[in-house]
Design a protein that fits this description.
The protein has 14 helices and 13 strands. The protein is an alpha/beta fold and 401 residues long.
Amino acid sequence: TDNLESNGETKHLSRRVLVSAPTPEFNRRLGERRWSDRMTEFSKSSKRGAAVGIALISGRNVIPAMRETLSCMFKDYSKTGLRDKTDKNTIRLCDPIVDILGNLSHHDVEKAGLRCILEPYLNYSSSRWVDRPLSEQKSEFTKVSGHQLVQSLPPVPLALLFTTAILEQKIILSSSRRSILLSAATAIIEMLKPLEWAHLFVPLVPAALSEDLVQYPAPFILGIPSEDRGSIDLLNSLPPDVTLVDLDVGRVILAKSFADDNELDVGRSNGKNVTGALRSQVLYLAEALGSVFGGNLHDKAWCCDSPLSVLSRNISDKDGLIHPNDILWRVSDEGPEADFSAVLKICREFISELLAGLGACCVWIEEFKSTREKSKSESADSTVLFDEDRFLHIKNLRAQG
């Protein structure tokens, strides 16, 4: 029985839990003094918070199932059936789940008690993952992960993240939600296909290793929880060649010294100008690609000036004419993961175009010594290592057989 105060009145809410095994000792404990009352008194006397929690552990990669299990359990046991008069949201009460978890901590409570409570939630949340082929599990997890990334980043920051990943930059994902770090990192790898990320990849970095890994000399994708001790100071003092992705705010902060370490800029008198121009081009590309993302994800906002963006018309089969009743608002019938499918399609087309090569593209690769390696008497002439015109000519000949 739970006591809920509403408009100065105390309402008594009772609930029954159907379990698959008898738990007399657990029931007796629930009838004694409420565990939530103990926690409240402890917090007041010690002037610090008290915690009661539950952790699910598995030898298999079933993180989405465990996450959904705990979420459904909390949702069921915290709901009261009442609604707030101001925002019409369901009023939730944490006391019931605190009483249940607290009483399970007693040594004499039946060990089957927790299993009986979790069993229906585990069965429900595992139905999409467990006992299914690994390929289907991977596909389902990718869809869920991609949807979470798309919901965390607006179209232009999402395009900037995709661009920096293609350019093999150092990327740090940051969020107070640990689960979103794994989802975002997984989605980024999926967006790069058919290319593969061949560098350091740690979706969830332990706090003890974060300071060392951010100094890694090669490209990386790291996930750092912002709520870890010392994480805020670390994220505020990142190396200048690291791009920060804040998934809580929804922004991407491009590295300050973007491409400064590129060997083509070493020894150039206008190295900073080249770097600045490259950063500008990357931002311009992200803006253009982001508008394509936005047009597919949120067409009513990103394509609001287009006469075809809001309404779709159905032509009557009878007379071939358009009737007012046939004009419908455009609403997608696909699931919530369809947004990431649209993003993946755009990324595939973008990468395919890059891999195919374009005749209008200008590529110039040079080899020269830096000012530290050459003396003043040596010539500064460059050696051309790649001739794009000849490369495309050979490529066309091979395509023709």
